[in-house]
Design brief:
There is one protein chain. The chain is of the alpha/beta class and 377 residues long. The chain has two domains: 234 residues, Type I PLP-dependent aspartate aminotransferase-like (Major domain) (Aspartate Aminotransferase, domain 2); 128 residues, Aspartate Aminotransferase, domain 1. Helices cover 40% and strands 14% of the residues.
């Protein structure tokens, strides 16, 4: 059986976890948490990075920092994970969906301006598959309408747009270190803060509404409850696991990119025959090999393909069901404009096995049966 995903494991994770245990510091903001924060700040030239309990909690923090008022609207794509929209609601806003581009599956930057109303306060961009949205275009709109930009870069760690790390372009960036991501701490994430004016409140939100972080730095003689907040701080055990992988970040990324390219080259003849569509990576984007997907003719063909590959012992999966079609999406959100590509393209897309350490033999096995599926038809 070739699994769709195998969580990354470098080899030093248990050693670092043991060090945290022996130091008698396994709650958050210990040595490994601080190491990870600093590594991410230095690697991506970020103003401030805070590890969080998940990518979802990073999004929650970003929305709370925006201080939305009841009825404030936030524009985003419907083709994303529920966390993107739920975080807006948690932050007090109203999600407004617009259509996606069929080439990158990212938000269609040309549909954003028409969706802006007097209540619009922010835009959430989702960098699908680690491929950046058209950030220059979106940044221009945000500046003209005084909108915040939140980057859902859950899949975009180590990806760039015109040389700039994803997550560091908008006002806030949100990473995920879930076991399905390129770098994992089991459950975890990080918030990137690109304006220092938000640093102190972000620490308070992350520490259950207290100014505990200032106390530990010796800036105050006791800490107290000063604002709303939640428990967004991950344990040292999770951070220790992640720290091992950050040491090998370039190696992991190179490995995934090599697998991605092998898939692309092997399946290009099928694309030339118009049997499938392959991923598009614009010239200004450097992706991170987070996933490799193909698009089939329609939902029926995709269903048969997934079943066929499962019979051959290969794990292939579809991805998001558009949020505007979900029960909560109908209840809490609205879709501006026409759904031309969101549903149609989501029903065609299927993801192939992709993980650090995917062997050349397994990759060839996958592509062999992808080709055989079309030969049999």
């Amino acid at each position: 059986m070739i699994s769709f995903n195998v969580p990354p494991f470098i080899g030093d994770e248990l050693k670092f976890i043991e060090q945290a245990v022996k130091a008698h510091k396994i709650s958050g903001d210990g040595t490994f948490t601080k190491k990870c924060n600093s590594w991410l700040e230095n690697k991506f030239r970020a103003q401030k990075v805070l590890l969080t309990t998940s990518g979802t909690s990073a999004l929650d923090m970003a929305m709370l920092l925006c201080k939305f008022q009841p009825g404030d609207e936030v524009i985003l794509p419907s083709y994303t994970f529920s966390s993107t929209a739920t975080s807006i609601i948690v932050g007090g806003g109203v999600p407004v969906f617009v259509d996606i581009r069929p080439d990158t599956m990212n938000i269609d930057e040309r549909k954003i301006e028409a969706a802006i109303t007097e209540r619009t306060r922010a835009v959430v961009v989702v960098h699908y598959a680690g491929v950046s949205c058209e950030m220059d275009f979106i940044t221009d709109i945000a500046r003209r309408y005084n909108l915040k930009i939140i980057e859902d870069a859950a899949q975009g760690v180590m990806s760039t747009y015109k040389g700039k790390a994803l997550g560091t372009i908008g006002d806030f960036g949100c990473y995920s270190f879930h076991e399905t991501k390129n770098f994992s701490m089991g459950e975890g994430g990080a918030l990137v803060i690109n304006d220092s004016a938000y640093n102190e409140r972000a620490e308070i939100l992350r520490e259950k509404g207290t100014n505990r972080s200032k106390f530990f730095r010796g800036q105050i003689d006791k800490y107290t409850w000063v604002d709303v907040g939640d428990s967004y701080l991950p344990s040292e055990l999770n951070a220790a696991y992640l720290w091992a992988q950050l040491q090998k970040a370039d190696e992991i990324t190179a490995d995934r990119l090599a697998s991605w390219q092998k898939y692309f080259d092997a399946l290009k003849p099928l694309a030339q025959e118009k049997l499938i569509d392959l991923p598009t990576v614009p010239a200004e984007c450097q992706h991170n090999g987070h996933m490799f997907y193909i698009k089939l003719k329609n939902l029926d063909e995709r269903t048969k393909f997934i079943s066929y590959m499962r019979e051959k012992g290969i794990g292939c999966v579809f991805h998001y069901v558009p949020l505007h079609s979900a029960p909560a999406g109908k209840k809490y959100c609205r879709f501006h404009g026409e759904d031309v590509f969101t549903t149609r393209e989501s029903e065609r897309l299927v993801r192939l096995p992709m993980y650090y350490g995917l062997t050349a033999e397994d990759l060839e096995h996958v592509t062999e049966f992808v080709k055989k599926f079309f030969e049999s038809r």
